[in-house]
Design brief:
The protein has a single domain, classed as Nucleoside phosphorylase domain (Rossmann fold). It is 35% helix and 28% strand. The protein contains seven helices and nine strands. A five-stranded mixed beta barrel has the order 5-8-7-6-9, surrounded by five helices. A hairpin with a 6-residue loop joins strand 2 and strand 3. Helix 2 (67-79) packs parallel to helix 6 (182-192) and helix 4 crosses helix 7 (214-232). The mean pLDDT is 96. It is an enzyme of class 2 (transferase). Its EC number is 2.4.2.3.
C-alpha cells in the first residue's frame, strides 16, 4: 500500500534521496544529473524521481515548503526504504559574510518551527545533521573550491514574519541564515535512525527586496546539487 502523500511503492524509492522543496527544481535535478530518471509520484505536486548517479540509485523527492510538509514526506520516504535524506534548498542570509549563490552547510538548526516542537512535545532540543553526511558535504565543497560556509541555520514557519532587525538580533549568536525545513529533518533522522543533512544556496539577504539574479542563483544551485550528489556517494 502506498503512503498517503508520497504515492510511491516499495522498491521505487532509492536509499539515498535529495529533498528540494520546489517540484520544478526536483524535475530539473532529475533531468540534469540522473541517468534514466523515472517519475514515481506526482500526487499533490510532490514530484518524485528515481534514477542513477554514477551508477548508484538516487531519488529526488519534492518536500513542498515548510517543516510540516517536509516531515510528512520524510516519514513516508523512510517507510518506503529511504535511508539518507539530504535537503537541497535555498536560504536567506543573516551573516553579512554570505553572498548570493554561496553554499551553506548546516551544522545545526535552531528549531523555530512548530513541527519540530510538536514532535518534541515542548522538550528543549538542538537538531543536528548526521555526522558522516555533514563531513562529506564539507569535504566535497572544499575540494571544489566553491564559496561555502559551515554553521548554524534557523528553521522558521512564517517566511514573511522575519524582519531585518530580527535577523540581525540572531546574527549575534552566530546564525548564518534562515530556512524552513532542516530542523524537522534532522530530528526525524535521529528518531527514525536514518541519515539526514542539509546544504543550502543563499538566495538573498534577509530584507533584500529581490532574490539574487537568476544566473547567480542557478549557478549556486548547480554547485549545491553537485556537492550533494558526490556527498551521497560517501555515505
Amino acid at each position: 500500500m502506498s503512503p498517503i502523500h508520497v504515492r510511491g511503492k516499495q522498491g521505487e524509492v532509492a536509499e539515498r534521496v535529495l529533498l528540494p522543496g520546489d517540484p520544478g527544481r526536483a524535475e530539473w535535478i532529475a533531468q540534469t544529473f540522473l541517468e534514466e530518471p523515472r517519475l514515481y509520484t506526482s500526487h499533490r505536486g510532490l514530484l518524485g524521481f528515481t534514477g542513477r548517479y554514477r551508477g548508484v540509485p538516487v531519488s529526488v523527492q519534492t518536500t513542498g515548503m515548510g517543516a510540516p510538509s517536509a516531515s510528512i514526506v520524510a516519514e513516508e520516504l523512510v517507510s518506503l526504504g529511504a535511508r539518507v535524506l539530504l535537503r537541497v534548498g535555498t536560504c536567506g542570509a543573516v551573516d553579512e559574510g554570505l553572498s548570493p549563490g554561496d553554499l551553506v552547510i548546516a551544522q545545526g538548526a535552531v528549531p523555530l518551527d512548530g513541527a519540530t516542537r510538536q514532535y518534541l512535545e515542548g522538550r528543549p532540543y538542538a537538531p543536528v545533521p548526521d555526522a558522516e553526511l555533514f563531513r562529506a558535504l564539507w569535504k566535497q565543497a572544499e575540494q571544489r573550491g566553491y564559496p561555502h560556509h559551515v554553521g548554524l541555520v534557523a528553521t522558521e514557519d512564517a517566511f514573511y514574519a522575519t524582519t531585518p532587525e530580527g535577523a540581525k538580533a540572531w546574527a549575534q549568536f552566530g546564525l548564518l541564515a534562515f530556512e524552513m525545513e532542516a530542523s524537522a529533518l534532522f530530528l526525524l533522522g535521529k528518531m527514525r535512525k536514518v541519515r539526514a543533512g542539509a546544504i543550502l544556496t543563499v538566495s538573498n539577504r534577509i530584507g533584500d527586496p529581490e532574490l539574487a539574479p537568476p544566473e547567480v542563483l542557478q549557478e549556486g544551485v548547480r554547485r549545491m546539487v553537485e556537492v550533494a550528489l558526490e556527498a551521497l556517494l560517501e555515505v
